[in-house]
Amino acid sequence: MWVITLISAVCLLASPSLAGIKDLSSHFSDPKPDPRGFEADGTVDIESLPLEYHKENTVTNDLFDGFEDEDYIDFDKILAAGSDDYIEGDEVDEIATPAPDIDIFAEPSDPKIRRARLLRLFHGRSRLQRLNMVNGRFGFNLYRSLRNNVNQTDNILLAPAGISIAMGMMSLGARSETHDQIYKVLGFAEFVNASHHYDNTTVHKLFRKLTHRLFRRNFGYTLRSVNDVYVKNSISVKDTFRAETKNYYFAEPQSVDFRDPAFLAKANQRIQKLTKGLIREPLKSVDPNMVLMLLNYLYFKGTWEQKFPKEMTHYRNFRVNEKTNVRVPMMTNKGNYLAAADHELDCDVLQLPYTGNISMLIALPRKLTGMRSLEQEISPTVVNKWLKNMTNRTREIVLPRFKLEQNYDLIENLKKMGLTGVFEETADFSGMTSERVSMNWLKHQGIITVNEEGTEAAALTQVGFMPLSSQIRFVVDHPFLFLIYEHRTDCLVFMGRVANPSQS
C-alpha cells in the first residue's frame, strides 16, 4: 500500500510590494499541446484543442524554475482565439425548482432543505458562480470543523478555494466509492445533480475556468494559483491522469526520489520562490515511502480602494474576551463604505473593497459572546443576503492591523465531515495508478497581513435583516470574521477569524 500526501493550499496573502503570476507553461516539461477532450476510450481528441494550445512552450525540468513579475498567462490571446471553454462557464442552465411545500427556513440539517436553499441560490447564476457557491459552503463547513478543535481565543485562516482545487485535482484519479465520497463531501455531487447539462467533468472544466477568471493581471489585484504534483520515481502514473491534471489544473506529475535530500531542498526552494520568501520550509521532512505529493498554493495581493492614512494609526484596546484586552495598532479611515446590519445573527457587516472587484467582508458580532452563533450560521446564503442588503454612506472605520500565520493538518476534520475513504487502505485511486495508494497527510498553511496599504497575502429572506444606514462609525475592537470574496465569480478565496490581532 502506497501513501499519498496532499499539501492543500499553502495559501498566502502577501504584502502590497509583491506582485506576479506564474507563467504556468514554464512548469511543464512536455512541449506538446495540452489535451482538451477525452473520448470514451481515454484517447485524446487533439483536433479539438484551441489554437493557443498548439504553440510551442518553454521547456524546463528544473523543479524551481519559476516566474518573474512579468510572467502572466496572456488570457487576452485566449479570448481572441475564441476559446469556447472560457465562455462556457457563463451559461445559466435551467435547474429544478424546490417543492413549494418545503420550508426553506426550517432546520438546515434536513438534506432536502439544504438542497432547496442551494437551488434557490443557483437561480440566475452562471455555472462558475454555482460551483463557487458549493466551494464556499464546503469552506464554511470545514471552518466549523476546525473551529471545534481550537481555543476561542485562537486566530483561524483558511483558503477554501485552494482546498477545493486540490481535492478536485485528487478526484481525477479516484474511482468508485472513493470518487463518490469526494464529490459528496466537497459538494460537487449536488452541483452536478442540479442540471442535466452537468457531469463529473464539468467540475474540472470549471476549475480550469476559475484559473482563467481569477488569475489575470488587469483586474487591479494579484491572485495566483499554482499546483504541483510529485510522484515516486518507481510508480507509473496513468497517461489519462497525467494529461487531465495538466489540462484542467496546469499541473503535470513529475517523477522524483523522495529519499533524496536534494528533493526536499529543491521543493522548499521552489515554494520559497513561489511565495516570494513568505513560506521558507513548509516541507520539514518527507516519508521515503510516499508515492504522490500534491501541492496547491494561493497567493493574493490587494490594495485598498481607499488606503488607511498611516498617520491615523494609533494603539488602542482590542477586547479579546470579557477579561482580556490587548493594545494593538488600529487603522482609521473615513469615506464611503458599504455596510449592513444582520439583526437575525446580531452582527454588523462591512465591505472593504480592494482595487479590482474583490473585497474583504468584516462580520463583527455585537456581543463578545456572539461569535459562536455567527460561526455556526454563516453560509453562502447568509453572505448573499449581506451583499444584497448593504447601503453606502460616509463612515469612520477603525480596524486593527494584523498578521496571521496558521498551519493545519486537516485529515481528522475531513474525516468528521464524512471524507474517510481516501485515507483508508481500501481507497480506489486506480484512475491515477495501478498501484494501491491512500492519502495519509493533508496540510494547509497560510499567511495573511492586513495593513494601511491593503492586504498581503438569490436571497432567501430579508426577515430580521436591515440595511446599516444609520451607523456612522464601524469600530472593529473585538473578535471578528473576515472573508475575501471575488465578486465576478462569487468565489470565497480566503476566510478566517481574528480573535487576537496581537498574536499571529
TrEMBL record:
Q: Which GO terms describe its molecular function?
A: serine-type endopeptidase inhibitor activity
Q: Which UniProt keywords apply?
A: Signal
Instruction: Please indicate which superkingdom the organism of origin belongs to.
Output: Eukaryota
Q: Which SMART domains match?
A: SERPIN
Check the UniProt entry and state the signal peptide residues, or none.
Answer: 1-19
Under the heading PROSITE patterns, the entry gives: SERPIN
**Biological process GO annotation list?**
blood coagulation
What does UniProt give as GO cellular component? Answer: extracellular space
Q: Where are the transmembrane segments?
A: none
Q: Which residues form the Serpin domain?
A: 140-501
* PANTHER family in the record: HEPARIN COFACTOR 2, SERINE PROTEASE INHIBITOR, SERPIN
Give the similarity note.
Belongs to the serpin family.
Protein known as: Serpin domain-containing protein
The source organism is Oreochromis aureus
State the taxonomy lineage: Eukaryota, Metazoa, Chordata, Craniata, Vertebrata
